[in-house]
Amino acid sequence: MPYRNALHNQDSGVNFRNIILFGVLIATFLAFPSRPSVAASDINSDIENQVKSTIEETYRSRVPDSRTKVTVNPTNRTLSLTPCNHSLAIDLPFASGERITAKVSCSSPRPWSLFVTARVEQFIDVVTAARPIPRNSKIQAAALTLTEQNVTRLRGDYFTRLQDVAGQTARTPIDNGEVITPRSLEATLAVRRGDQVTLEALKGSLVIRTKGIAQEDGHLNQQIDVKNLRSGRELRGTVTGPGTVRMD
Question: Per the database record, which ranges form the SAF domain (predicted)?
Answer without folding.
Answer: 124-186
